[in-house]
Design a protein that fits this description.
26 helices
């Protein structure tokens, strides 16, 4: 291994770690090459620990990303916090023991305070708290290991086992837990990634979709934090058939946008071997000033081809027509019961940015935003009882800190006054004859007049009990009823208007391994969401043009088959869905002309300048910007190239 190249790799990734820690976000990068990766990985691990970051490692040769729950369990078992003896055992239990040794009798109190500060929630918080509170911890350690192994864990609190559908949330919890236990963030290393290329078509497509989801980190504000995920493998990652770069959605986020050269921070694809001669020492790592953290948050996202988590005008071009359509949709939703719209655009054209813009407008209009990505089709979209919890967990409400419905439920149960209002609302809803009324009756089960049983309310509205239920009509009806109850309560208790439901990544309906039968099942659920059952709702289906064409081509036949099923619910209005799919006037993602692209490039350069100051002016050459505008195939590629040129100028002085 070339020592100078190694120094450049370590320094550029160290700056990336510092940046994501300051921004509170995560990033994903690919390290590929035929050189032995161990010297690089050892150096990266040592540097991360020295800087105060935790490290966690897993080989994808044994369990690929299609089994993300297995990967998360192994990462937790390998977790090593800074300051620990390299010769000792590692893992989550060892990290908890170190926390107790440091804080002694104040460990429980300190843990709870830090957990609140880091927004740590869910099963890992519960299990870690139980371990810290135990006299010996042996039983609790076995319970924690069992949960990380995917087993059911007996506990007084409702807890989901670690499984495919909960793995992303568990990984996010793990990164937050690492910060609670004293790390500044986490460097995750997924090695032997060439194994992904050799998976069967269906599993490979799932694995690549999961990797794309890790890049997006769009988990309702509850995703991974202060984390760098390094996917390390041989040259097969980009040279072989079925490589990462052949997956369109993934490639638009991670494919290289800079010519071969010295590594720079936030580069999404790096070589283990030097592609150029090295003529200088590695730059020094700089801390990010607090006043630049907001701009850094946007830059970290744009560098990966993603829109900032907060919609910002500085990266918005050509939205006038979209704004007009949004106004029209919201007005019709308020007056006509519900509306359905289709947002159409190719990969990288800006669908996600448009959806973010719509989300910001919805929240400003006091509308809750529900997002349901079409992922793991056999478990989720066609089974509302299984995805209801994810739908409400990832929702954003027009309240402080973009609270989720689960956050508000805890608030409603907190004080006598809010409990009284909740009880009165449930009583009023229960007097009706709708599916929401039956869900309200379930919330009131076992409670005395004027009182509430917290367990019944949390079980009904939390919907954890539904996640493992089959897709028969009674459970689907129950799930729909609980969602309608949520919307009614949010209107009564928080003054919310009708919701905006975003159905994203619909192209996964046609990924490898998805059968027509699975698509038919998915369309049954879309019959509820898009067929008019949600009051005052605006439902937006985001698709690529070819997916919309395929849906329309299949819709008549598949929906006729669904309509003939005796198990179809009246609220699953597939006839209305058919009409809406065929007649909807798509909202096209704004196609920018040369002038619009030039404006977008200028805005991206301004963002880089907000982070790095005058050091990025070297990348402001008019000819260079014009070349990017001319060559970029999509707005996403343009933004990535401009931002990364700024990174190179600021880092290397080029």
């Amino acid at each position: 291994m070339d020592e100078r190249w190694l120094a450049h790799l370590v320094a550029s990734r160290a700056q990336t770690l510092e940046d994501v820690a300051a921004a509170g976000l995560s990033t994903v990068a690919i390290l590929s090459g035929d050189a032995a990766p161990d010297p690089v990985l050892d150096a990266l691990a040592a540097d991360a620990l020295e800087r105060g970051f935790a490290i966690a490692t897993c080989s994808l040769a044994d369990g690929g990303l299609h089994d993300l729950d297995v990967v998360v369990g192994k990462l937790a078992s390998s977790l090593r916090l800074p300051g620990t003896d390299p010769g000792r055992r590692h893992g989550l239990v060892v990290a908890l023991d170190a926390f107790v040794a440091k804080h002694k009798k104040h460990a429980e109190e300190r843990f709870e305070a830090l957990a609140e500060e880091e927004a740590l929630a869910g099963e890992l918080r519960v299990l870690a708290s139980q371990y810290l509170a135990a006299a010996t911890g042996r039983t609790e350690a076995r319970r924690l290991h069992a949960w990380l192994g995917g087993k059911e864990v007996p506990t007084e609190l409702a807890m989901r086992p670690l499984a495919a559908r909960t793995a992303k949330r568990a990984l996010a919890q793990l990164t937050r837990l690492a910060r609670v236990l004293g790390a500044r963030g986490t460097r995750v290393v997924l090695r032997d990634a060439e194994a992904l290329v050799d998976l069967s078509g269906g599993r490979r497509d799932v694995a690549y979709t999961v990797l794309r989801e890790l890049v997006d980190n769009a988990d309702g504000g509850r995703g991974t934090v202060a984390t760098e995920i390094l996917v390390v493998g041989s040259g097969a990652l980009d040279r072989r058939a079925h490589s990462l770069t052949e997956h369109p959605a993934l490639a638009s986020r991670i494919a290289p946008v800079l010519p071969p050269g010295l590594p720079v921070p936030h580069q999404s694809w790096l070589s283990l071997e030097p592609p150029v001669d090295i003529d200088r020492d590695a730059p020094s790592v700089r801390a990010i000033e607090g006043k630049r953290a907001g701009a850094m948050r946007a830059l970290v996202r744009v560098a990966q081809g993603l829109p900032p988590l907060e919609a910002i005008a500085e990266l918005t071009v050509g939205m006038d027509e979209v704004d007009a359509r949004i106004e029209q949709l919201f007005a019709h939703a308020s007056n006509d019961g519900s509306v359905f719209a289709v947002l159409v655009g190719e990969y990288g054209a800006g669908k996600t940015h448009h959806l973010l813009h719509m989300e910001a407008r919805a929240l400003a209009d006091q509308r809750p935003v529900l997002r349901l990505a079409v992922e793991r089709l056999d478990e989720d979209l066609g089974n509302p009882q299984r995805h209801l919890r994810r739908l409400i967990e990832n929702a954003a409400l027009p309240l402080r800190r973009r609270a989720t419905p689960i956050d508000r439920l805890e608030g409603w149960l907190r004080t006598p006054a809010t409990r009284k209002r909740l009880r009165a609302s449930l009583d009023a809803i229960a007097q009706g004859d709708s599916d929401a009324a039956r869900a309200a009756e379930r919330c009131l089960r076992g409670a005395e007049a004027g009182e509430l049983e917290d367990a019944a309310v949390m079980e009904t509205l939390g919907a954890l009990d539904l996640e493992t239920k089959p897709g028969n009509p009674s459970y689907r009806k129950d799930a729909y009823g609980r969602l309608l109850l949520w919307l009614d309560l949010l209107a009564r208790l928080e003054g919310c208007e009708g919701p905006v439901l975003i159905l994203d990544e619909a192209e996964n309906l046609y990924r490898a391994g998805v059968s027509r039968a699975e698509r038919r099942t998915a369309l049954r659920s879309l019959g509820f969401y898009c067929g008019g059952a949600l009051p005052r709702a605006c439902v937006v289906l985001a698709v690529t043009p070819d997916t919309l064409g395929a849906l329309r081509e299949e819709a008549a036949e598949l929906l006729d088959q669904i309509e003939a099923q005796s198990t179809l619910l009246p609220t699953e209005d597939v006839a209305m869905l058919r009409r809406r799919l065929l007649r909807a006037r798509p909202i096209p993602v704004t196609k920018l002309g040369r002038e619009g692209l030039a404006t977008l490039a200028e805005q991206a350069h301004r963002l880089a300048k907000d982070v790095h100051g005058k050091r990025v002016e070297r990348a402001r050459d008019e000819d260079t910007i014009a070349k990017v505008v001319r060559e970029a195939r999509t707005p996403r590629e343009l933004l990535r190239r401009v931002v990364m040129q700024g990174e190179r100028a600021a880092w290397l002085g080029e």
